[in-house]
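Troubleshooting log. The previous structure file for this entry was overwritten by mistake, so regenerating from the original sequence record. Sequence copied from the archived sheet and checked twice against the printout by T.R.
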Amino acid sequence: MKTFRFFLIAVFATVLAYTFQVGNTHGWSFFSPFIDDIKSMTWAGQFNVDFSFFLIFTGLWIAWRNKFSATGIGLGLFTLVGGIPFVSVYLFILSLKDNTTMKEMLVGEN
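Regenerated output below.
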């Protein structure tokens, strides 16, 4: 579990640093370029469509894992804009539970 936590920290730090660099260089409006790439029907647009569905699936998993409670639905929706920085923090917090296993992290109490 320690290795997994280290990986989550590395993912969070890498994406956060990259995000700040891009934001400072190109501005903080990411929705417009994201949609423009999709409209362009290029590989960048294909990646954005693929990534969007990945975020939707991840958000649904988090909502399901939390039994579609109000909190679970809120966390799932936040995944759509929080991306991997949010998911890495979410998994890191889950990993801190005493004696938690990977199975418990993935399926919760179900």
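The chain has one domain: 2-99. Archived copy saved in two places this time.
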